[in-house]
Amino acid sequence: MKTYKPTSPSRRGMQTIDFKKYITSKDPIKALTFGRKRDQGRNSQGRITVRHKGGGHKRLYRDVTFTYDKRDIPAVVKSVEYDPNRSGFIGVLAYKDGERRYTLLPKGVVVGTTVIAGENAPVEAGNSLPLKKIPVGAYIYNIEIRPMGGAKVARGAGVFAQLIALDGGYAHIKMPSTEVRKIHAECFATIGQVSNDEHWLVNSGKAGRSRWLGIRPTVRGTAQNPCDHPYGGGEGRQGRGLRRLKTRWGKPAGKGQKTRAPKKYSNVFIVSRRQVGKASKGE
Is the pTM of this model over 0.70? Predict the structure, then answer.
């Protein structure tokens, strides 16, 4: 991590990633980038459905591939790059057939490393295999939920899941949230842990850096009026005055309260629910 001298109040305690240790190229490949409109918390009707989003620095989108459609063709990692749209580092893969693609890199993979995706690929960091071919106990990321559906699970910086069992055509995966879930054994995943595992140690130092990232301020419920929040009102500083946590709309939230839909379609794939209060990232 990179620390700073307290030359100003915002510099005091500030910690950032020392990108010079990891990044090998600053300029992205033009053919693999394009502009993209950011929804900033709005749905297809333009209404805000996720609060506290908006503004932020303009971003160039890198076309990172999460599909496993290029199999049994070795590729060499040509560069390690920063991506403003995600927390992990990305890299350029130069395939033997001449194609280049961006991919999400695992921890420990550097420039010059050869990776491959396929049924019989070696079990090494950066290689991609079907879950049925991965040894039990291995750390994995970039996991498909449906065969050929593209990676959806475990894509954040420093995150990994763990394969803990194979049974009846399904793999039992311990998610970063500690939930154990069944995924079809034909689905692909990549060996290793997502790069930039120091991401959670970053200390912004000031509110302005959050605004650069597109994160708007959050007002505490107890600081609001009674008409705006269940915790609002009262003379002076007050506690919430309620036994259970609530959201702004009166729905239960956090601290062990179940918020999952009781009849959700994917309930049949959950072997054990996540343990509330446990550390994330599979720890």
Answer: yes
